[in-house]
Structure formats: structure tokens, C-alpha cells
Amino acid sequence: MHESVMEQLWRTSHLQGGNLAYVEDLFETYLTDPNSVPEEWRRYFDQLPGIPGDHRPDVPHRDIREQFRYISQNQRRYTPTQGTPATISSAEQKQVRVLQLINAYRVRGHQRANLDPLGLLQRPEVQDLDYRFHGLDEDDLEEEYQTGSLCFGAERMKLRDIIDGLQRTYCSTVGAEYMHIVDTAVKRWFQQRLETVKSHPTFEKKTRLNILERLNASEGLEKYLGSRYPGTKRFGLEGAESLTPCVSELIQRGGSYGAREIVIGMAHRGRLNVLVNTLGKNPGELFDEFDGKITMEEGSGDVKYHQGFSSNVMTPGGEVHLALAFNPSHLEIVTPVVSGSVRARQARREDTIGQQVLPIAIHGDASFAGQGVVMETLQMSQTRGFGVGGTVHIIVNNQIGFTTSYQDDARSTEYCTDVAKMVQAPILHVNGDDPEAVFFVTQLAMDYRNEFKQDVVIDLVCYRRRGHNEADEPAATQPRMYEKIRKHPTTRDLYVKQLIEDGEISDDDAKKFFEEYRDKLDRGDHVVDALVKEPNTELYVDWTPYLGHEWTARCKTSVPMKTLQELGKKISTIPEGFSIQRQVKKIMEDRGKMTQGALPLNWGYAETLAYATLIHEGHPIRFSGQDSRRGTFSHRHSVLHNQKDGSEYAPLEHIREDQPRFEIYDSLLSEEAALAFEYGYSTTTPATLTIWEAQFGDFVNGAQVVIDQFITSGEHKWARLCGLTLLLPHGYEGQGPEHSSARLERFLQLCAEHNIQVCVPTTPSQVFHMLRRQVKRPLRKPLIALTPKSLLRHKEAVSSLDDLCEGTFRTVLPPKQMPDPRKVNRLIMCSGKVYYDLLEKLRSDGREDTLIVRIEQLYPFPHDDLDAVLAPYRKIKTAVWCQEEPMNQGAWYCSQHHMRQALNQLNPKLVLQYAGRKPSAAPAAGHASVHAQEQKQLVEDAFSV
């Protein structure tokens, strides 16, 4: 009978106790990289039986010793025929050890790599890379061994040659980390790309001269600015000049792969250099900024090393639009903004795999390791709602953060890049003083991103020739490092020397090339040869329709009854055979009744109808938040889940044929990165209603940097429009300090120059018109909407279909039945949920002397609308502002002057009174009984102060 491979292998009895250690070692090598062991052993290990009773879903033989001891002890069960036990020769044992040595270099070779241009980096001792550690000796160096999956040399090589090749591949000026990736195909890809050229391919003269030209530009601009504007802050690139050829090659290679847009995010280090030498900003314009000749007609403007820019360049694959994102000094906060912008551009192009739009994120070493938004952004990178097909990350690794040394204080990890391992991103460490090595890993990184559509990191290890800024004296805190830097030649000088030694150029050539670049700067010429002077405008979005409009711009937000009922039927219909959960079924049935007019509309249905009508009219919608698909308070249910098979159905995706996108995602548990992502998205797609919802409004304070630096000030610093909508559940209902307040006062404090809208809608029709207004108006301003919790099901907080068929969003909302002006002597103004508490008190007391007015838009404050509502009530003697929040919070301090202005129109002697909670350090009481007493008292005060 013909024996199977398994039978043949088992019959060899290699699993006898005497050979167990040998096979264990071989198997351990196999687990790390199956391709690193001979094919017959790989087939053998692939077919190993599992241990009885072990039903783990992963590979059943991960515990090496447990597996082999079990098999060796029970060998007779597995061996069809017994033969004379084979023994493992010394040569075979050494062969396995050679394979283990090869594997050690792949795993840990980067720890011995020559990465620091200054030679100050202290590397740990790596015993695994010593052949003696693996039981080999000097005599073995001249022996030939099988090279396994090694991608250089022959199938058999001398051990000395194997080690020399591994040293050059993994321990020279390139240190590659990829063996932490679980996908064997990826590891094999890197081995093929790295080992075939030993991490140092030979470049032709044209390429080498191009690298030199980029270094000339990088160093030339810094020296020019240093001599022309000595001591002026510019956060120069000196010491990291290799960044310029790196970014330029990413763009050119990305274009050759079909990219049509590339979005770049970076902090201030080297930003001016990238603006001029990569994006093609006219040097003359930069010099004018240094000279103070640029004045802003509107807005505040920003310092030059925070500014963004866009241009088009030509690549081998065609014209590419470049966009450098604006970024404040909060460094890493721009990375999720770039991701959001890229996602929006990909959606516009229907680029589902990320081939046409590419993100490049340039980081500092200290910030990449230290700022949590980096982790949040990496964690988003492979999710379905936030993925962009991979980001190319470049770390400008100065080996120092301002004055903080990485060795003692900046991080706890070996590398600043270690955080990227959480998403199994490959990390390519490279010595910045080896421009050709930088060029090689740049190509490798772009090729990886193109092949696998995942994040990849280039760790450009360099230094900072000057201090944190040009007015800083770094030797005060890093004397040893800067003593070394003062004596260290520049990257360009080192490369020129190399090219001269190789006979590629002469010393005169080098001087000529450098002077030619300086002459261009003197003339104020563009210095990027690939710059397209007459760009293709189809590569970017036209924002002109949204410019120059006042916030009072009108629009039609009402919808015909017939349209509402048709859409209502579609979003309330469940597919045949689709089984939904009992409570959800009741919600959908009630929505059907609301469509027929048999029930009043609740909040969730009016909101859903707003989305349905916008989609019907051709407006895309993107919605994200931690529990947005269901809704934190179980009111939305925009995605239904089949109780039988877990499949999903989103009614809003079935409004009409060829409808625009409707996307709604439950985001990861992040506020900062998620909100920054949506900001970036909204600044790129003005026609889309982009919404981010907080789980509770309180949690938005985790994204305060995004609010301060982008949402509320971006238009005035950078002339960057944004129509982002924030839905922030807010309302005092006894749930404690962290589940009551969306920190209304913080948003109001940031309000100026009509920068944002702050609304507190209290009826379903109001949220319907508010959401539609956000898209239908030509205005693009961020909308901060404080949305309710208990009002989602409040018996009084309802509307009718007629309310949606007529009118618009009302910034001031008087009672449905206005009281007799002759009887009214008390005015209570309020916003939000407290209105319904006041209304209950008004009715229970039978009061006819009180007018309750809701201010539904606190900013921009609706002076004219409030004046119109109050105009008939000339007999008011007492005016009160009532709020649930403590006095030092809420709208009281930020908005009282607006309300006093309105009262002054009625009677200059009227004094505005306050009814609300006392000043408090915390937003709300932690005990329900205390909350109830406070709530009762503030309502009483509104009618008695």
C-alpha cells in the first residue's frame, strides 16, 4: 500500500525523546516563519495532529513542548509501522541552528542597526544575533548550510557569507521590524524585498542626482532663511534634510500607482521646507510673511508654520493634487483630520479601496510616542467607518522632544514607533544620514501600502541641528548631543562626498547645483520642477457657492405631506422574512402609525424623516458616534438587526434608486480622534450632512482640542469652512455629574464673529428643520446641537406631520397658545428640557400672568426674533432666566447681556433675574434625591423671584 507523507514522516521516529529538543527548536522556528524551515518539515508541521480534547480555534499545536511530549509519549498510536529509530546527526542539528540564526536576524536585527547619525544611540546587547548563542562556533563559519527561505545567495552558502548578508540587510542603516505581523504573506513579502537587495539597492546616476537635488533644496532653503532672518522662529528641518527626498518620492511613486490626491498632515518641524520644496509655494510669498507684509482682510490668521497649502504636481501616473492640512501646535491632532479628509475624497471618487487618494502623516518622535490621539487614530485605521486604505507615517525622529530626552523621560518603550505595532504596522527604521537608504525604505513603504492597503511607518532617525526653535540654546539641556552636532557634517555634505568618491559628480558640480537653487530663491521663483502652473480644477472641490453668506440666510426646510408619507412608508417597512426584536418591532409599527397621522411624531421619527428627505433630495449623509446606529437612548434604530441570522438592514439606504450615500457607523470608544476625523471629512465635502454624536454630551470634553483648535476657530485662522454637526445629549435628570451636561458654557465662551451655531431644540419638528437647515442653507458653519434624553419619549415633546410640512427652524419658540398680553407681568426665558418642567408648574398653578419663551438658538443670538415675540408684552414687570445648570455654567454668564438688550427694548428699567442651581464646581449632583430637590427649587424660583 502506498504510504502517505504523514505515515512516512511518522515512521522515521524523529519524535523520540533523544531528538525532542531538536524538533522543538525546529518547530519554534516554523511557528515564527513557516517559510524558514525546509519544505518537507513545513509539510510535516502543517499536518500535525492536535491534542485530544484541545479544540482551540487557532492552530492546535501552539504549545510546542506540550504537543511534542504528548506525541512522543504516544508515538505508537501515530506510527503505522515500527522501524529502527532514526537519530539526528550533528550536521542536521547545526542546520536547524543556522535557520534559527537567520530567523533571529529577521526578528531582532534592527536592534543592532546603525540608525543614529550622531552615534549616541545606546543599543541593547542582542545575544540572539551571535552565532555562538545558537551553538555554532568559528569552525562552522566556513561550512556550507542550506539557506532555507533566505532571499539572497544560493540554496547553500557558507555561514560566514550568510551572516555578512544578514548584517547588511538587517543591521546596517536600515532596521526593519515586520516579524510581529501575523500574516505570513506579508512577512514573506518583506523578506523578498529586503533580502534580495540586502536593503541597499544600486541606484542609477539619474536617481542619485535627483536625491542630491532634493537635499540641495532642503538644506538650501534652511541656510537661506537662516542668513536672511537670523534668530526668527521657523522650526527648521536642519538635521532631517532627508525628509524632502522622502516625501517627494512618496508623491511621485504614489502618483505612479494611480493616486490623484494626496493629503499631508504634519506638525511645525520642517513645515516651511515642505511648503516650498514639495508643494511648490512661491518662496517670495514666504519671504513676504517673514517680512510682515501679509495682512489678513478677515479673521485672525495664524503663524506661518501652521498654515496649509494646496497645489498640483505632475507624476509618472499623471497630475496629482496635493493638500497640506492646516495644523495648530497640538501636533498629532492633525492626523485624524487628514484621515477624515482622505475618507471624504475617497467617497467623492467612489474609491472604495483607497487607490486614488492617499494620506501621508509626518510626526515627531516625542509626540508620536506621547500623545494618545495617535493610538486612537491607529485603532480606527482598519475599522469599516474610518479606514482609508492605509496611511504612510513618517517619524521625523530628532531623538529629543523640545528639551526632553527619550532615554529617561519621553517614553517607556524602546522605540517611539512601538505604538504602531498594535495594528501590526511594519516599521522601517532608517538612518537619516543615508539618503539612499531613506529613498529605498520610502519606495518600500509606498509599495507595501499599495499592495496591502494598511498603515506603514518610516522612522527617519536624524537629529535637530538647532534648538526647538532658532532662538533656543539647546546645549543648556543637551550639552553632549550638541557638542556632537556642532562637529557633524550635514546630510548633503556627506552625500556629496559619497557621490564624488563614486565618480558621479565633481566638487564643482556640487557647488553649481547648490548655487542654482539659491539663485531661484533670490529671484523668488518656484523651486519644484514638477509643479503644475495651470492645475486641473476637477481634482478638488469648489467651495465658492458657500462663500459670502450671512448666518441669517433663508432656506426652505418644509416638505410636502405626500413626500413625507411616501418616505415614511419606506423607512417604516421591514423586508419580508426579516425578524426584528420585539421592542424594535413596536417602534417600527408606531412609526407606521405616525406616518398615517394616527400618532403624533416623536423625536426619533422626526429626526429619521429629516435624513430621509435630505437623501431624497440628493444630499449624502455621514453619521458616526459610539452608539449612533441604535442611539444611546434606543430612539433611532437606523440599522435593524435580524434576530435569526444577525444580518442588517438600514431603511435609509433604500430611499430611491441611485440615491446618495447614507453612512452611519458605531465608532470606537474615542472622542478626540473620532471628532477630528469627522471635522476633516466635513471640511472636504460641503454637500454632505456630516454628524458626530456623543454617547453623552458630557464626553465631548475628551475632544476639547478639536473644538478649540479646529471647529470654533478654523474659519478665522485658516479661512477653512466646515459644516460639521455635533449632537450632544444634554439634560439634568439625576444621572450625576458625568451624564447631565454637554458643557454648554464652554461652547458659548468660544462663540464670536458668528463662528458656530449653538442650538437647543425642544420639539421633534425643531430638530427636523434644524438638521435640514444645516444642509439646505448655503452657509457652512459648525452646528452644536444640545439634544435631549428624557424628551425623546416625553408626552409633551411631540409634533405633527403638519409641523414638518410648514415653517422652518424657529430660533425663538413661544407657547402654542400665547397668553393675553394684558394679563402677563412675568417673563420666563429658558432653553431645553426645563421648559417642560416650567410648563407643568404653570398649568398646575393655573397661572395666566406668565409668558414662557424658549430660546432655541443661543448663538448667534436671535435678537430680532426675540424682540418680535416680546413686542406685545409691554406690561412685563419681572423677567427671569431659568436654567438647570449651576449659575457658573450653562448660558447665564455668556448670554445674559443678549437677553438684557431685548428687555431694554420693552422697558429700560427691567432687571433680569436668575433662577437655577447655585454655583458649583461639578456640573450636577450625584444623588437623585438632591437633584430632585434642586430641580423643584429652581422651578419654584422661576415663578417667585
UniProtKB/TrEMBL annotation:
It comes from the Bacteria. It is an enzyme of class 1 (oxidoreductase). It catalyses: N(6)-[(R)-lipoyl]-L-lysyl-[protein] + 2-oxoglutarate + H(+) = N(6)-[(R)-S(8)-succinyldihydrolipoyl]-L-lysyl-[protein] + CO2. Belongs to the alpha-ketoglutarate dehydrogenase family. GO terms for molecular function: oxoglutarate dehydrogenase (succinyl-transferring) activity; thiamine pyrophosphate binding. Signal peptide: none annotated. Its EC number is 1.2.4.2. One of its GO terms (cellular component) is cytosol. Keywords: Glycolysis, Oxidoreductase, Thiamine pyrophosphate. This is 2-oxoglutarate dehydrogenase E1 component. Homodimer. Part of the 2-oxoglutarate dehydrogenase (OGDH) complex composed of E1 (2-oxoglutarate dehydrogenase), E2 (dihydrolipoamide succinyltransferase) and E3 (dihydrolipoamide dehydrogenase); the complex contains multiple copies of the three enzymatic components (E1, E2 and E3). CDD domains: TPP_E1_OGDC_like. E1 component of the 2-oxoglutarate dehydrogenase (OGDH) complex which catalyzes the decarboxylation of 2-oxoglutarate, the first step in the conversion of 2-oxoglutarate to succinyl-CoA and CO(2). Residues 601-794 form the Transketolase-like pyrimidine-binding domain. GO terms for biological process: glycolytic process; tricarboxylic acid cycle. Its cofactor is thiamine diphosphate. The keyword Lyase does not apply.
